[in-house]
Amino acid sequence: MARRLPAGRKLNMFHRCPHCDGDCMSSLQKMFTGPAGSVSCRSCGKGVSLRWSHYLAVILPAAIILFGVNRFYPDSLVLVLVGSVLAVLVCIAQLLLPLVKDRI
Fold this sequence. Notes:
Strand content: 15-25%
Structural class: alpha+beta
Distance between the termini: 48 Å
Number of helices: 3
Strand order of the largest sheet: 3-4-5
Oligomer: single chain
Largest sheet: 3 strands, antiparallel
């Protein structure tokens, strides 16, 4: 049986803006947002992005694991499987990273 939300609560698929605390971007947009570029908030229009230190804390371990697997299984289905699992985990982890005010 599906779990229901309490009366009066809605499921919010948007992430909060650090400027205005409004709905900033969807989860899909956030998965493809990085620290090098900024995205305009759909509520206030100000720029938001991800912090480099948080982003690297997610990407570097995944890259190290992938290169390590490639070292021992260079032409294997294991490399494809591990790479696919890591890609999904990185996308999920990126959803948990906080949005920050753009410095530009």
